[in-house]
Amino acid sequence: MATATAVYKEPAPKLDRENPLESMMSRFDSAADILGLDDETYEVLKAADKQVIVHIPVTMDNGKVRVFEGYRVIHNTILGPSKGGIRYDQHVHLDEVKALAAWMTWKCAVVDIPYGGAKGGIICNPLEMSAGEVERLTRAYTVALKDVFGPDRDIPAPDMGTGPREMAWLMDEFSKTVGMTSPAVVTGKPLVMGGSLGRTEATGRGVMTSTLAALAKLNMQPENTSVAVQGFGNVGSWAAKLLFDKGLKIKAVSDISGAYWNADGINIDEALAYKNAHNGRLEGFSGATLMPDPSELLICDVDVLVPAAVEDVITEHNAADIKAKLIVEGANGPTSASADPIINDKGILVVPDILANSGGVTVSYFEWVQNKQGFKWSLDMVTERADRIMTDAFNKVYDTSQKYKIPMRIAAYVVAIDKVAQTYKYRGGF
Known about the structure:
Distance between the termini: 51 Å
Structural class: alpha/beta
Strand content: 15-25%
CATH architecture of the largest domain: 3-Layer(aba) Sandwich
Oligomer: single chain
CATH topology of the largest domain: Rossmann fold
Mean pLDDT: 92
Shape: globular
Number of helices: 13
CATH superfamily of the largest domain: NAD(P)-binding Rossmann-like Domain
Order of helices and strands: EHHEEEHEHEHHEHEEHEEEHEHHHH
Radius of gyration: 21 Å
Low-confidence stretches: 1-16
C-alpha cells in the first residue's frame, strides 16, 4: 500500500548541448529549399501530428508513490504507422523527443520502409531503480498510452535505457488491454516472444554496410583503413566488431570509463570478451592505452570516425580538428548543425545518422512483418535483405548529393522529405 506521493521530475535539459530540435530543423529547411517545397507541405511535414504527455504514478519498493513524466510524440503517419523507440533517461525532455520523432520519419523514408516517425521517453534513472520498479513503470506507461500504441497505429521499440525486457512487458500489458496476444505492437522483443534474428546487431551492421559503401566511393581499401569508434555499447561494439571482421584496423574505442588507443589496432574480439567479463566496461583493458582525455578520440589520427554514443559530440569547437576522411554516424544527432559547414569545408564525407544507423529500424520493420505473417525468417534472410536495403539507400543518397552538389546529410533529407511529400500529395493532402 502506498504511504505517500512524491512527484519525480528531474531537471531535463543537458548542459552545453545544442537544441536537437533546432539542429534537425536547420537541416530540414535546407532540404526543403532545395526541393522547392510549397508552403502547405512544408508546414505539414515540419510539425508533429501528436504530442502526448503522461504522468505515471508508480509504487516504489519503499512503499512510496512517485509520479513520473512520460512522453510520446507522433511526428508523422503519411507513409504508414508511426515507429520509434522509448527512452528511459533522467535528461529526457520534450524537444529531444520531438527531434528524435522527426528523425525517425526521415530515417524510415530514406530506407524506403512504410513507417512514419515517433519517439517516446520517460524522465527517470533506470540504473537507480529495481527491476520491479522499472516493470511497474513500463506497464503503467503502456496503459497510459494504450490508445496511442497499436500494430497498425504506433509501434514502439527499445532506445536508451530500455531493451528486450521492457518491450516484453509492454507487449504483455498491451495484449491484456486488447484481450489478445499482440506481438506486432512492439519490436525489439526477446526472440522467444517474436523478436527477429539479427535485430541485436542490426544498427551496428548498418553502420558497417554504410562504411564499406562509402569507402568504395572514396576508393579506399578496407584493409588499409583505420577507424575510431566512440561508444562501445550495442551500436558501437557491433560496428567495431563487424568492421574488424572486414579487415579494418580499429585504433580507438571508448565507453563510459574512457577512450582507449592502440596504433597497431585493437583486437575487438578481445575487447568484447573483456567487456563482457567486467560488467560491460573496458576499464583496465590491457589491449590498448587509456587516452588522457576521452574527447581526443574524436580528433585522433584515423581514416574513419564512427560517433556511436550520444548527440552533439561533434561541434563547432572540435570539428576543425577532426582528421578522419569519413564520418559514419552510429548515434542519433552526433554532429551539431553548427559543425556541418566546418566539416563540409574540410571535404570530409559524412554518412548521416538518418542513413547510417537506420539498419536498426530496417530489421525492426522485418520483425513487425514476421509478427504479422506469423512466420520467422532465417538470419541469412534478415541480413541479406537488410544489407541490400542499406546499400540501395546509400547509393540513392550519394547520387542525390552528386546531382545537387550538396553534402550527404542534406541529400539524405532531400531523399526522405521528397518521398514523404510526394506521398502526401498522392494521398490528397488536406
